[in-house]
Amino acid sequence: MARRQGCQEAPRGRILIRIPAHSGNPVPGILRDVRAHVFGDAAIVSMAAESKGTYKGKPFSENSRGIDFFVKRDGRWQVVNSQMTTIKP
What we know:
Structural class: mainly beta
Distance between the termini: 32 Å
CATH class: Alpha Beta
């Protein structure tokens, strides 16, 4: 499993999102609608994410869509770019 900066490995379908460093608390998140498209030694993975928690003492709930770009280097899949966009209610 590749690691994104600021994230930790977690069971499939779960992620740990680190909100800004001064908050210091990882927030459990859930991935949905994960779709992978492999093109030889490159892949694109799209997903929806849901996260809830507190930030500076205030509760928040956020839904977002994202896409990760992977390349296979030395037999390992590595993330080369990642993008998430918040979905406004």
